[in-house]
Design brief:
Two copies of one chain form a homodimer. With 245 residues, chain A is α+β, with helices and mostly antiparallel strands. The first copy, chain A, contains eight helices and twelve strands. In chain A, the strands form three sheets. In chain A, strands 1-2-9-4-7 form a five-stranded antiparallel beta sheet. In chain A, a hairpin with a 2-residue loop joins β11 and β12. In chain A, α1 packs across α2, α5 packs across α7 and α5 crosses α8. Chains A and B meet through β6, α3 and α4 of A and β6, α3 and α4 of B.
Amino acid sequence: MQAVQRISEIDFGHFEEALRCSILFESVKTDVISEFLSMSSVLNFKKNDIIYNLEDKAEWFYLINDGWVKLSRETLNGEEAILDVLGKDEVFAENTMFENFRYTANATAVEDTEVIRLPLGFLANSVEGDSELAMSLLKCSTSKLSSKNKEIEHLSVKNAPQKIGCFLLRLCNHSKEEQSLHLPFDKILIAAKLGMKPETFSRALLKLKDETGISVDGRNFKIPALSNLSQYSCSSCSSQFPCGA
Amino acid sequence: MQAVQRISEIDFGHFEEALRCSILFESVKTDVISEFLSMSSVLNFKKNDIIYNLEDKAEWFYLINDGWVKLSRETLNGEEAILDVLGKDEVFAENTMFENFRYTANATAVEDTEVIRLPLGFLANSVEGDSELAMSLLKCSTSKLSSKNKEIEHLSVKNAPQKIGCFLLRLCNHSKEEQSLHLPFDKILIAAKLGMKPETFSRALLKLKDETGISVDGRNFKIPALSNLSQYSCSSCSSQFPCGA
């Protein structure tokens, strides 16, 4: 059974800061945030723990405080389709209020993960009378739509090595030419997120190494020249690095 | 120069019906719809006409009355990335109010197309004080997000012949086993929308014909058994036909 730690009033300041890092809450009034927090909890999940299942009744939505969460569905022939892998400060399941309060995917912790669990019914009730909150939710949806559009563009116009390069670039520090990276989750999941079979991913990674001079040791990557990686990976995309995708 | 026909008050009833076919306007009050219509026009575009360009100042958003509209961006190496191809009753560019009122893609008529052009500034002003309208806009965004999620799933888990099959299924009458289809726009655009090179599309179409017994003559398709087509195309997807994608 998952340990659920209610947020106490003395911690509101700390968690208000955490909420304000998300687009949804960045400009919501402090008293509204306090109301949310008074009904919220902190939950810690181990790697591969299930947060909720597709079609479960949706009472909560979530903000990721630390770690990574995978949203997925099972295909009819039993494979897993990855819809999203979300990281720190991202909110998920808030749109479920327009989906008959049923979760539209499975949510699973990909690594050890801490989330803030917020009340969905309260969001749904508040948003109807609070046009500021409605605008925040709209901004959040627009930002998600815009990143989905970028993802569709990536999936349709980039070749496999460029897709991997693009994924790596999003983890990079933009100001350093030479850098080291540790992958936040394993390569099989990255392959699935990028719509590749593991064997395609391996071949594409070899090609990316040849083209850009990066080196790989397990989940550790060394990038000798960020400009090489971005030049190669972004050439078939409409946005230049860093694109904020 | 594009012919712009202001909507006259005597036509409000007719165009209210058209607006109500979209998720955005289906439950908006009649007097709000009338205010929108008093500032709206009907525009007719020929095939390949540009409706607006990326980065243009956004004064308007659009509802498609008839025809098809392509949203695209140019990639850095000069190719075209298709973000969406939209049909009747779909609204586009309404989210531009959260993107500094600049269009985030090129919009082009794919066939002869009639659109209703609506005032974006009025939408932005109204939505802040009108929580019903804000909820309608949120529902519209959620529905778009949900279809983008399905599209990402299709792009990442389906093979090329299944992607074409899925595209055809969405044009089919769900209740008839044997049917004929006329493609709404040409195969090169369908290939691009599905993230395939034209030669990949041709090979995949041959394989789809072999697997499902469909026959093709130019833009005309004959489907002898809808159940065969759906069984083949949906097997690697999480939704069963008809999925409403």
